[in-house]
Amino acid sequence: MTMKLYGGARTRASIVHWYLEELGVTDYEFVMLDMQAGEHLQEPFTAINPFGKVPAIATDEGYRLWESGAILLYVDEKYGPPKSAEERAIAAQWVIFANATLGPGVFVEASREKQFPRLMAPLNALLERQDYIAGDGFTVADVAVGSMLFYIPFMLKIEFTDYPAIAAYLQRIMARPAFAKAILNR
Predict the structure, then answer these.
(1) How far apart are CA 185 and CA 178, in angstroms?
(2) 65 and 36 share one domain
(3) Residue 149 contacts residue 109 (beta carbons within 8 Å)
(4) Is 165 inside any structural domain?
(5) Which end of the chain is more exposed for a tag (fewer CB within 10 A), N or C?
(6) Which of 48, 46, 50 lies closest to 62, judged by CA?
(7) For residues 118-127, b (16+ Cβ closer than 10 Å) or e, as one string?
(8) Which domain CATH number covers 38?
């Protein structure tokens, strides 16, 4: 089965691309849509995601899925190592946290001042105790949360000076070859 990952320049599709690269998946194609020309708002893409948002995936067999968190969890289930129900729940917890709590808490300007320290302090404490979000090994949780953390200094020009464990964590994930290929080199 060949999968197509649809995205655009500087979109959340790079997060899914990163995880596919982390897992060594080779049977996919990254389809770069011209967002400026509105390719994401017209057929054939709107047959995959009628809302015209990326990322989205489509397989040769007709399976379609959109929303970065859902795609990450699908990729994790399909290509990642086998997991128990509890491990899958932890993965879902962190992916949902990244998209529903961390992202809006930091990237929505109206909530940033209050939410930033409330979110960063516990994450910093967690990363003082362990190398990665869900424990000692790299998982989909690191792709979801790590990508959000990476974009904070990049997009908002906010540094993690008061959160050294987060800064060290970012250095660990940015040193990963798959991160460099999918995020830094895009």
Answers:
(1) 10
(2) yes
(3) no
(4) yes
(5) N
(6) 48
(7) ebbeebbebb
(8) 3.40.30.10
What is the spatial distance between Cα 91 and Cα 32, in angstroms, rounded to a whole number? 27
C-alpha 106/C-alpha 149 separation (Å) is: 9
How many other β-carbons are positioned within 10 Å of the β-carbon of residue 185? Answer: 8
φ/ψ (deg, to 5) at 65: -150, 140
Domain count, the chain: 2
Helices (H), the chain: 13-22, 68-79, 85-96, 103-107, 109-129, 140-151, 164-174, 177-179
Amino acid at position 85, single letter: A
Contact 75, 23 (CB under 8 A): yes
Q: What is the CATH number of the domain that holds 116?
A: 1.20.1050.10
pLDDT tens series, the chain, 186 aa: 689 999 998 899 999 999 999 999 999 999 999 999 999 999 999 999 999 999 999 999 999 999 999 999 999 999 999 999 999 999 999 999 999 999 999 999 999 999 999 999 999 999 999 999 999 899 999 999 999 999 999 899 999 999 999 999 999 999 999 999 999 876
Q: What does the DSSP 8-state code read for residue 176? A: S
Q: State the Cα–Cα distance between residues 169 and 133, nearest whole angstrom.
A: 9
